[in-house]
Write a structure and sequence with these properties.
Largest sheet: 7 strands, mixed
Number of domains: 4
Structural class: alpha/beta
Radius of gyration: 27 Å
CATH topology of the largest domain: Serine Threonine Protein Phosphatase 5, Tetratricopeptide repeat
Oligomer: single chain
Shape: globular
CATH class of the largest domain: Mainly Alpha
Number of strands: 7
Strand content: 5-15%
CATH architecture of the largest domain: Alpha Horseshoe
Length: 686
């Protein structure tokens, strides 16, 4: 019973404060408040649940199990307690128990969104993708505005296609496009196979077989499907990704047919303006990776001159001409871009103007004002910088913003089997070394509770994109600046967390760059690194060899030529490369196979590299659901999942496991002393 001086309203306020502390990442305060409520009145299940959630965040699975179990003894209907036990079992690797607990909970609340969400996660780990999709769809129907449910549902659709029209599925997917955290690549198979059944597109899918003059005639006379009335096509084009070869050929044929009309009679394209503007956005986001004929280049020169003549006469060029120019080249790259941006455009072209003119011009101004933290005089660094100035990487729009967590909470989630050291880091100072276009920095600025982030990169164009997006999303705890990792030792700041993903392997000497980062990491701090896998990049290595043998350059024109010819030069390799999502955009493809500098590693070589730092390896942060459990099952002697020899064997059995790099965490002990004679670096590959 509660003490006589403690009213129920007081307990409710204490419990609300405990929940708020847990949400904000103040776990010590959350524990103290929840325990105070329990000491006053043990029969308060909400406090036991809060205590269980904090224990779970700290990786204390036995204590979490006890707290959630106590809450259920007090009230068997508490779904949050059921969910806590399910999550505890999953984190402990006991998937059989998690299944049984989930079945019991679903009997109580079969339509509960979070239960269905947890069911989807569990089924992914158990490698039942179709059942996972069904449960994520049920979670999304229960809570359509949940970013977690939207993202999980879209992610679960990767690689899936439809064999017939599925209007119910499309009705779920269509509102997701453009939402934060939704990568169009996840739903490409479903959307694009659905488009093949659309009545407006079906007659055009043989566009390659239609004489070009006939296609021009159809556009000019109006004897052409009303593509502007297809919401799925318009939405999909505006997100830039195309994986289906028939659709890519169609888009290329339509652009080619519309170009001569834009030159000689742009008014004939007025009725097509809406879908052509969407096509211009698609081509802009794909960075004009599609093949271009000699005839198109001649017409494009004429189109450029016509637009220029209107600008010289202070006239707004025909909107259709601007749209077609945007289908071939970014409007923001024109010398008259500032003048064009100052004009009033038709309302249906507002999005095209924003993406191709307004935002790039803002970024140009930002790039000129960015501070330089170090000089960039290393020859390889200069070469890499030039590449990313031309092709800022990666391209992204709306990120999935994570919950704010302490450093310890984040690592507990990433490395559920690791025996982590105490990580009592408050208000962490975070360095993103090689931030590219800023996505990683923005995620870190929110993911680490009360953090201050310094985001550095070689490329001003990439940094400017990141800084613009950070301001757009309301972040004020990120500083952006230009710097070379090889010179970061000049910085006087020290950091609790350093992230450098997909960067060190582009240095001439990755170990030298890593040594610079180690010197900036505070004792007791952690580092997240991403490095290329030798096994996962076998096809990339073969492509690089093919490029070298046939003398392809790395200009946009040469990349387009390689893309068009690779299947003729090596049909098997070309077929495999086309399955890479990076094949669909210029900067992605350049980064994949045309990068001017890269190294790759095996797990054993990673072991040597890490040993040279004196830091402790905490574990691999895996992206593929269920793979950590599969590894643990295969190697039960490696409880913390940190044996590099075992990982080398496991990677040979699962060669795509580290397709997006080895992603792993390191720890700098408080007693750290620099190695007096670190191992000499040997380039693992180049």
């Amino acid at each position: 019973m509660p003490d006589s001086d403690d009213q129920p309203s007081d307990l409710a306020r204490l419990q609300a404060a405990a929940e708020a502390a847990a949400q904000s990442g103040d776990l010590a305060q959350a524990i103290a408040l929840a325990q105070r409520v329990i000491a006053i009145d043990f029969r308060q299940p909400a406090s036991h649940i809060t205590l269980g959630q904090v224990h779970l965040a700290q990786g204390e699975l036995a204590a979490a199990h006890q707290s959630f179990g106590t809450a259920l003894v007090l009230d068997q209907t508490l779904i949050d307690a059921h969910i806590g036990l399910i999550r505890t079992s999953i984190m402990g690797g006991d998937l059989t128990t998690a299944q049984a607990l989930l079945a019991n909970a679903l009997q109580l609340a079969p339509n509960h969104g979070e239960l269905r969400f947890q069911a989807g996660l569990l089924l992914q780990r158990l490698r039942h993708p179709a059942a996972a999709v069904q449960n994520f769809a049920l979670a999304l129907r229960a809570a359509p505005d949940s970013p977690r449910y939207r993202s999980a549902f879209a992610y679960s659709l990767q690689g899936m296609q439809v064999a017939k029209p599925e209007p119910g599925l499309i009705a779920l997917i269509l509102p997701l496009l453009g939402q934060p955290g939704i990568d169009p690549r996840w739903v490409a198979g479903i959307v694009e196979t659905s488009l093949l059944y659309e009545p407006q597109l079906a007659p055009l899918l043989t566009a390659d077989d239609i004489a070009p003059a006939d296609l021009v005639r159809q556009l000019e006379t109006g004897d052409f499907p009303a593509l502007q009335d297809n919401p799925l096509l318009l939405a999909w084009l505006q997100h830039g990704f195309t994986a289906e070869p028939r659709l890519e050929r169609l888009y290329t044929a339509l652009r080619r047919a519309a170009l001569p009309l834009a030159v000689r009679c742009p008014e004939a394209l007025t009725r097509h303006r809406l879908w052509l503007a969407a096509l211009a956005l698609r081509n802009f986001l794909a960075e004009y990776v599609d093949a271009e004929s000699t005839e198109e280049l001649v017409l494009l020169t004429q189109l450029d001159a016509l637009i220029g003549a209107d600008v010289d006469a202070s006239r707004l060029p025909a909107p259709e001409r601007l749209v077609l120019y945007g289908c071939y080249r970014p409007l923001g790259s024109r010398a008259d871009a500032e003048w064009l941006a100052g004009l009033a455009w038709p309302a249906e072209l507002a999005e095209l103007k924003r993406r191709q003119l307004d935002e790039p011009l803002i970024e140009r101004r930002i790039a000129a004002e960015l501070p330089a933290f170090t000089a960039i005089d290393d020859a390889v660094s200069q070469t890499v910088r030039e590449m990313y100035e031309q092709s800022p990487f990666p391209r992204w729009d709306q990120p999935m913003l994570p919950p704010s967590q302490t450093v310890e909470m984040r690592l507990r989630a990433a490395l559920p089997r690791a025996k982590l050291p105490p990580l009592r880091i408050e208000a962490p100072r975070v360095l993103i070394a090689g931030c590219g276009t800023g996505l990683q920095a923005i995620i870190a600025a929110l993911a680490y509770h009360r953090s201050e982030v310094l985001a550095l990169d070689l490329s001003r164009a990439s940094l400017a994109y990141g800084k613009r997006k950070a301001a757009e999303l309301g972040f004020s705890n990120i500083r952006f600046g230009q710097a070379d990792i090889l010179k970061l030792g000049q910085l006087t700041e020290r950091f609790d967390v350093i992230e450098s993903f997909g960067v060190l392997h582009h240095l001439q000497d990755p170990a030298a760059g890593l040594a610079q980062l180690v010197s900036l990491l505070k004792p007791g701090g952690v580092m997240l690194l991403g490095l290329y896998s030798e096994v996962a990049r076998r096809d990339v290595v073969a492509a690089r060899d093919l490029i070298a043998r046939h003398g392809f350059g790395d200009t946009p024109a040469e990349i387009r030529r390689f893309r068009a010819e690779v299947e003729q030069l090596d049909p098997a390799l070309g077929g495999r490369l086309k399955r890479f999502s990076a094949f669909r955009a210029m900067s992605d493809l350049r980064d994949l196979v045309f990068h001017r500098q890269e190294h790759r590693y095996t797990p054993e070589q990673l072991s040597v590299l890490i040993a040279g730092t004196g830091l402790r390896f905490l574990g691999f942060d895996l992206e593929q659901p269920g793979m950590l459990e599969a590894y643990a099952s295969a190697y039960p002697d490696d409880a913390e999942c940190t044996d590099f020899a075992h990982w080398a064997e496991f990677e040979q059995q699962h060669p795509s496991l580290f397709a997006n790099c080895f992603r792993f965490w390191l720890y700098k002990p408080p007693s750290y002393k620099p190695l007096s004679c670190p191992p000499q670096h040997r380039n693992p590959s180049g």
